[in-house]
Amino acid sequence: MRRGITRRGLVGGGLAFSACGASATPARRTVETPLGRLDIPVAPRRVLAVDSRISLESALALELPVVGYSHSRARPWVPVPAGVPMLAAPPDLEQILMLKPDLILCPDTAPYSDWWPLARLAAIAPVLPSNHRLGWQVNLARLAGWLALTALAEPRLAAHEELVASIRRRHGAAIASMRVAALYFDPLKRRAMVCSDGTAYGRVMPAQVLAELGGREVDAGRLGPSGDVALEAFGDVFGDVDALLVLDFGDGSVGALAGEALWQRLPAVRAGHVHIVAGNCTFGSFYTAQYLADAWAALYARAEA
């Protein structure tokens, strides 16, 4: 029995329902965000992360009590507590309403879209945004500031800085001299999608972490708008690339890429300077940054061997 709650009711009865839940929060504070001034719980008890990547990872890094998340299944390297469910994707507002969140985290990419319905979510609970054109550290620090959790964010940021510094110490010469690329393959369109900074996808995580290391990437100006490279252009784009990090989404695309003759002719591939990293790590936050730092280190180690 759903007790009559519908999407239509979100604007009327649903608002009253969520407000009733919010009244149980013992204390609230007012913060200034890109969405304007918001009244949020001092200590949130039920946090909904709309995006399984940046929203969820940021929430977990700040030890927030997450009650659910959307978009896609959390990556294996993200420590989601047992029992936290993946919800419908795109987000189902009725389902979210029934979870009674007192705080929602959502990208501000398209606030009236089905996938990122930030404007409609605001009728359920206060929404704190992330921005995919900002670096993951900026998003995490900004969220921590709103929630007065900077003391939790700072050790995470410091741990990542130390990991990056240790990789620089081990592979500094290779990082300075080698041009590298992170990519995944679309076997249907037979094209690579390169994760460089400056494409329409915004601040993709492989490019962010490579920049932290001081590495040299393929310039976005040599790529299509979304980082795409047609198969026949592989030689032109990747011919001077020394090492390649290939993202394996587990869909057979890596095997399909290995079967392409133009891929096998690339100097980096012939030299064995290819490292496969499991999982979709194009977006994320602290945990994906750590995961990718280790992946880049493995690629540089392979190229140095």
Structural notes for this entry:
There is one protein chain. The N and C termini lie far apart (63 Å). Helix 7 (150-177) runs parallel beside helix 13 (286-304) and helix 8 (205-213) packs across helix 13. Helix 3 (54-61) links the parallel strand 3 and strand 4 (66-69). This protein has helices spanning 7-10, 13-22, 54-61, 93-98, 118-121, 136-146, 150-177, 205-213, 234-238, 253-258, 261-264, 267-270, 286-304; strands at 28-33, 36-41, 47-49, 66-69, 103-107, 127-130, 180-186, 191-194, 228-230, 243-248, 274-278. The longest helix is centred in the middle third of the chain and has 28 residues, at 150-177. It is an alpha/beta fold and 305 residues long. The strands form three sheets. It has a five-stranded mixed beta sheet with strand order 9-8-7-10-11. The protein has a four-stranded parallel beta sheet with strand order 4-3-5-6, with helices on one face. It comes from Ancylobacter oerskovii. Pfam families: Peripla_BP_2. Belongs to the bacterial solute-binding protein 8 family. Keywords: Ion transport, Iron, Iron transport, Signal, Transport.
Spatial strand order of the main sheet: 9-8-7-10-11
Alpha plus pi helix count: 13
Structural class: alpha/beta
Tell me, what's the shape?
Answer: globular
Percent in helix: 25-40%
| Overall mean confidence score, pLDDT | 91
What order do the SSEs take from the amino end to the carboxyl end, as H and E? HHEEEHEHEHEHHEEHEHEHHHEH
Termini gap = 63 Å
- Sheet having the most strands: 5 strands, mixed
Based on CA atoms alone, the radius of gyration comes out at 21 Å
Residue fraction in strands: 15-25%
Number of strands: 11
Task: Point out poorly predicted stretches.
Answer: 1-25
